[in-house]
C-alpha cells in the first residue's frame, strides 16, 4: 500500500508516523496548497514527493492510495476525485458531510473496485474489539454514558472573533462532527443504528455547536453521548446492564483500559497499546488491502453509513445544517 496525503494538520503527521509502524505501507507524496509548506512537510518526514495541485498528484501512478485530512466539507470532493483517478481512499472522520455524499462515494468505489476506508481510530483499537467480546457480561444493556470533552484552543480563537474551520458551518464543523462522532462510532459499533436520535447543543452565535449531548434511543436501552470543545472533563464511557457494568477509561478514540464489574467482582483489562492510536486502523486497512477483502471493507462501510445517518439526523434535530445538505 503506497499512499499520498492531502492536508498538513497535526493529524497527517500522526498518520504518517503510524504508517511507519506497519510493514508494507509507504508514503509516496504529500499535498499542500502552498509550495513552501508542501516542501517543508515532505522534507520533515523524509518523503520524496510533494504536490500543490491535487489533479497532478492524482495523475501520478507511482502510488495507489490517498489519505484525506482536509476540512470536513472537502472530504467528499477529494475522495470522489481520488476514486475517479483509480486510487483507494482512506478518509478522515467525519467521512462526509451527510449520508447522500457517503452513499455516492460507496457506489463509486464499488463501481471502480476500490477500497474506501474511514479513518476513525476508536473502533479499530484492540481494547474496543475485546470490549465487544465481554459486552454480554453486563446482562441486558440498559444505559451507555460516553463523554469526550477536550477544551480547544480554537474555541479561544472563536471567542476572539476568528472562525476556525472546525467551528464553521461552511466547513461542516462543530463539536458533534469533531469529537462526539467518536462516541457515535463507539455506540453504533456495539448496538447498531439507533431507532431515534436527538441532539442538544450549546451553540455559538454563528450557529455552530461548541458542545452538546446526543441521545440515542434503542429498544430497551439508551445512550447519552457528550462531545465538548468548550469544556474539559475526565473522559470515560460507562456501559450499564442489569448484571453489571463496564467502565472504559479514556475517550472513545483512546481506550486506555477497561474495567468490568459483575457480581461484586472487578476485572481490569489493560492490553497496553501503541503510543500512536492510529497504528491499529492502518494495520486493519493494510490487512484488508493485502487480502483483497472487499467483504470486510464493506462491513466497515455499512457501519459508517449507520453513523453518518445518525449524525445527520442528530444535526437535523438541532437545526445544524451544512451547505452540503442544501445541494
Ligand atoms: N483521527 C483523528 O484523531 C483526527 C484528529 C484531528 C483531525 N482529524 C480530522 O482531520 C481532518 C483535518 O483536520 P484539521 O484540524 O487539520 O483541519 P483544518 O485545520 O481545517 O486543516 C485542513 C487541512 O486541509 C488542507 N486543505 C486542503 N485543501 C484545503 C482547502 N481547500 N481549504 C482549506 N484547507 C485545505 C490544509 O492544508 P494546506 O493549507 O497545507 O493545503 C490543512 O492542513 C478533519 O476532517 C478532522 O476531523 C482527525
From TrEMBL:
Transmembrane segments: none
Domain spans labelled GFO/IDH/MocA-like oxidoreductase: 137-246
Gene Ontology MF terms: nucleotide binding
Gene3D superfamilies linked: Dihydrodipicolinate Reductase, domain 2, NAD(P)-binding Rossmann-like Domain
Domain Gfo/Idh/MocA-like oxidoreductase N-terminal: 6-117
Database matches in InterPro entries: Gfo/Idh/MocA-like_OxRdtase_N (IPR000683), GFO_IDH_MocA-like_dom (IPR055170), NAD(P)-bd_dom_sf (IPR036291)
Top-rank taxon, per record: Bacteria
PANTHER family per record: PTHR43054, SCYLLO-INOSITOL 2-DEHYDROGENASE (NADP(+)) IOLU (PTHR43054:SF1)
Name listed for the protein in its UniProt record: Gfo/Idh/MocA family oxidoreductase
Natural source organism: Salinicoccus hispanicus
Phylogenetic classification of the source organism: Bacteria, Bacillati, Bacillota, Bacilli, Bacillales
